[in-house]
């Protein structure tokens, strides 16, 4: 308790979130802390790691060291980036190389994600419980296996989003309210990274009011200022109103 308190870690709160800590020998905790500290984590950074993944304190240094070796030798992480990778995803430290990290790496590479070192946060994910179900979701709504894997290869962050809380409501709005073709998602899977309430709906509704239709990337990626400027320019041009039969044509303005 005194040792962890010296680093600013509340031992009593830690027991509530991770009871096994109470039975771990002090020497094992110190060994693990010293190993992680060797990568130059500050005390503040280490406290953050423990708050996000308290299991690290009940992991032996002999279990954590292979994770570092795997990230450097197999996942292709540069030594100078190792600290950043752990800070972003502390749970990597408590994952088994044999049963989690290596199988996930092999799966990501098998669908064409070559630079996994840029997406190491995915390595702690279960292939069976998280990655495959997300691929299957897009196949079930009509995309081929090749089209689906191309989407994830183009935008690996897609694996991070919830099917129920992200995919389903955004896809429903895309089809039912926006009336757009699913093939647009093949080219711009980043659609799912934008807030439905704060970005997608307001911008789509603004376009409807002006009788304008932008490609997805223009609709969502541009800044608020750029979006309003494009909208004003298009509206003040000879664009047909939304009530006109011409508005059904897939018209896209020339980029400014």
From TrEMBL:
It comes from the Eukaryota. The keyword Kinase does not apply. Gene3D superfamilies: Transcription termination factor 3, mitochondrial. The keyword Protein biosynthesis does not apply. Keywords: Transcription, Transcription regulation, Transcription termination, Transit peptide. It holds the Pfam family mTERF. Belongs to the mTERF family. This is Uncharacterized protein.
């Amino acid at each position: 308790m005194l040792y962890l308190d010296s680093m600013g870690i509340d031992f009593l709160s830690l027991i509530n979130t991770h009871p096994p800590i109470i039975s771990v020998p002090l020497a094992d905790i110190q060994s693990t802390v010293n190993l992680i500290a060797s990568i130059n984590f500050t005390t503040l950074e280490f406290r953050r790691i423990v708050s996000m993944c308290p299991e690290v304190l009940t992991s032996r240094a002999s279990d954590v060291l292979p994770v570092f070796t795997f990230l450097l030798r197999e996942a292709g992480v540069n030594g100078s980036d190792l600290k950043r990778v752990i800070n972003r995803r502390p749970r990597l430290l408590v994952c088994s190389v044999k049963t989690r990290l290596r199988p996930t790496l092999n799966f990501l590479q098998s669908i064409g994600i070559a630079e996994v070192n840029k997406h190491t946060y995915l390595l702690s994910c279960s292939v069976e419980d998280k990655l495959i179900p997300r691929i299957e979701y897009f196949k079930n709504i009509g995309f081929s296996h090749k089209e689906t894997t191309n989407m994830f290869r183009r935008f690996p962050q897609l694996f991070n989003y919830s099917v129920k809380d992200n995919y389903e409501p955004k896809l429903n709005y895309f089809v039912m309210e926006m009336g757009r073709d699913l093939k647009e998602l093949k080219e711009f899977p980043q659609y799912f990274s934008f807030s439905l309430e704060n970005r997608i709906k307001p911008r789509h509704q603004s376009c409807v009011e002006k009788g304008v239709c932008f490609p997805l990337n223009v609709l969502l990626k541009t800044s608020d200022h750029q979006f309003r400027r494009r909208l004003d320019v298009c509206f003040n041009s000879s664009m047909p109103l939304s009530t006109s039969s011409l508005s059904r044509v897939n018209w896209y303005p020339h980029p400014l």
